[in-house]
Each structure stands twice: as C-alpha cells, then as structure tokens.
Amino acid sequence: MPELPEVETTVRGIAPHLEGRRVERLLVRERRLRWPIPASVDQAVAGQRVHAVRRRAKYLIIELETGTLILHLGMSGSLRVLNAETPPVLHDHLDLILDDGRCLRLRDPRRFGSLHWTTDPVEEHPLLRHLGPEPLSDDFDGDYLFKASRGRRSAIKTFIMDSKIVVGVGNIYASESLFLAHIHPKRAAGRVGEIRYRMLAYQIKQVLNDSIAAGGTSLRDFVREDGAPGYFEQALRVYGREGLPCPRCGASIRQIRIGQRSSFYCPHCQR
DNA sequence: CCGGACGCCTGTCGGC
DNA sequence: TGCCGACAGGCGTCCG
Q1: What contacts A221, CB < 8 A, 6 or more positions away?
Q2: CA dist., res. A128 & res. A1, Å (int)
Q3: What's the CA A249/C1' C13 distance, rounded, in angstroms?
C-alpha cells in the first residue's frame, strides 16, 4: 500500500497535531502486527512529549523525550488524527492518546504494519541500518544508480525496489518511473547505461514529488490523516492500466509479472 | 554476496 | 447465490 508519497503525506498531515503535545498513553487493541508489540512499549511512552515526527524510507519516526517510535504502515495501514472518544472500528489496532483529547489511530486490516520502540539512535536500528539513500536527497542521482548497478543481473524494476539501493520506491512508482524514463522493466540492471540512469533518477524524483503534491495514491484503503484520499491515481500513466492506450504513443499497455509483482509498461516506448 | 521464492494477513473480485 | 483461487501499495527470511 503506502509507498513514499503516502507516508510523506501522512507525516506532513499528522506532525502538526503531534509535535509539542504530550502522549497520555498508548492504547493497543491488537498486539499481533507484523511483529508483536511488547507491552513494555506502553509503559515506555506514557507521559512523554513529542519532539518531532519525520520519515525515513517508508517508516514514520516519532521522536519522544527518551526514545523513538518507529511505525510502518505495511500494505494496508493508515493513520488518522481523531477525537480520542471516537469509537474504533474493525482493524483499528492502536491509539496514541494525546493530552488534548485527540489520538493518532492506526488502522491496518492486513496487519503487515509494525510498531517498534528504541532508545538507541534510530538510524542504528536493525530495520533502518542497511537502508540506501532517500530518493529525494542529493546523494541519489544517476551516477549513483549507474555505479551501484554494475554487474547486477536482476531486472531493473526489482533493482530500484531494493531498499538497500534506494528506499521508498514501491510497486506503483517503479512502474511509473520506468515508463517515464523509457526503460523496459525487465532489462538487466547492469545493462542500463549512464544516460538512462540519469533520466531514471530524475523521473523517480519527479514522480514522487508530483504524487506528494497530489496527496499520494489511494488505490484501496489509503487515506490521509483527515480521512481524505490522495489524488495521484488519476495521474498514473501505466500502473493498473493494462489494455488501455499508452498516454505517449497509444500502444496497448501490458501487464507482466516480475519477481511475483505485477508490472505495467508500454511495449512500444520501453525497451 | 546475489537473486529468487515464500510467507505473514484480510478483503475483494472474477469465474464457474 | 456460493465457493474458490488469484491477487493486492511491503519486506524480512530462507535457500541455492
């Protein structure tokens, strides 16, 4: 579900409601997320001031006074800021209850999301330690991708979805950016040239920024912190558009599987 | 080290 | 109408 733009949209939406507030308590209704939430987390966070809310890869980082909450939305998670008295519905697994009568509520039907608490520097957490650069940062560019891809035989789509290479590029934006850069998604990563990688890095930044500006993509259950959907779905060029005409040349968009994931491309524009 | 397959879980949809 | 398999925005783990 949420890729980088959806997580970024969520962070921007919730940060103003959380920063500077105090966490009254953490209310967990379902501990069995991707990893069970230890009961000790509830004790650890109670009473603490929220210093900052930010994003690293697809993780939401909530900095408290003595440590950090690391929240992942998995495939189907979404966060909303609600009055704490609002009755929970099915799959509303936890509330971070604030001192102003509101709460941050996680809904996650598939339970692939997770919540971790750490008192160590967050970048050293096992889940974050080996992550590659942020795609919207200056360390990410075509030269970096070109060097990192030498000798790689995997499909370029799989390559750019590898979080050790670059974070935040999920199944939707991988297809979209490869279309915009005119690269066939099955091309071996090691056989893509420097010029193409410059174009690809540029298009990854472009499509992520455009999606953030539209509030992300709401294919199924993603909603923003206020319950509104994102509007980038209507801007998708190839994802989910099998059989429809390519917006550039009119050829029929194809759907194939690469590494067990659906992939969409234009057979005429992408080689 | 690399690449590919699997599984975690619920909901939805298409075909029969 | 009901059932069943396929599939869905992620990602850690295991195996060759």
Answers
A1: A1, A76, A78, A107, A109
A2: 19
A3: 42
Distance from CA(A113) to C1'(B8), angstroms, rounded? 11
pLDDT tens for A99-149 read 999 999 999 999 999 999 999 999 999 999 999 999 999 999 999 999 999
Amino acid identity, residue A226? Answer: D
End-to-end CA distance of chain A: 28
pTM strictly above 0.85: yes
Q: How far is the CA of A150 from the C1' of B11 (A)?
A: 41
Four-residue CA torsion sign, A69, A13, A177, A201: negative
**C-alpha dihedral over A81, A34, A108, A26, to 10 degrees?**
-30
Contact between the CB of A21 and strand B at under 7 Å: no
Tokens standing for A28?
Answer: 């967990």
Name the phi and psi angles at A117, rounded to 5. Answer: -120, 130
Nucleotides of C under 7 A from a protein CB: 7-12
